[in-house]
Design a protein that fits this description.
Chain lengths: 96, 96
Amino acid sequence: MVTEFAEIEVKPGMEREFIAGVEKSKAAFLRSAGCHGLHLMRAVENPLKFVLHVQWESVAHHMELFRAAPEFQEWRGNVAHCFAAPPVVWHGELVV
Amino acid sequence: MVTEFAEIEVKPGMEREFIAGVEKSKAAFLRSAGCHGLHLMRAVENPLKFVLHVQWESVAHHMELFRAAPEFQEWRGNVAHCFAAPPVVWHGELVV
């Protein structure tokens, strides 16, 4: 199991719309192959900064299967207009 | 409840020592006021990059109480020599 970290900064004034877009996209993630959950964290120090955490069975489930699926287009359609810059995306494995 | 995110890059060759230092520090975190758990994630794309997640009752429990406590010195003593640069630290609140 890996965790996707998507570090997202949103345009000022788009915070609520972005959060609503994540809520709206939950079902699309959860019905995707190998997706085992997601949550969104917001930075206390910068209300425009968010990190989306998504649990995937493997990096390939995210980067190959999900990115090629209509659910990825749905996700991007719900939130991409809120992004101030392209998200920084990486994957983490639990070590402790 | 907030999550501390400490983004840590370690010096090449110090990865195992760093992970062992986090293991060794677990008890110091868990006996600190307001600490409700921690885990360490390692980046798949960059084996020198880690994120420590610590659950705290509030930002003050981390930044005021913990940083003034001997447990913080213990933590730094166990791991700081492994850091390639000062950690980037921020706090997140769950929104979705």
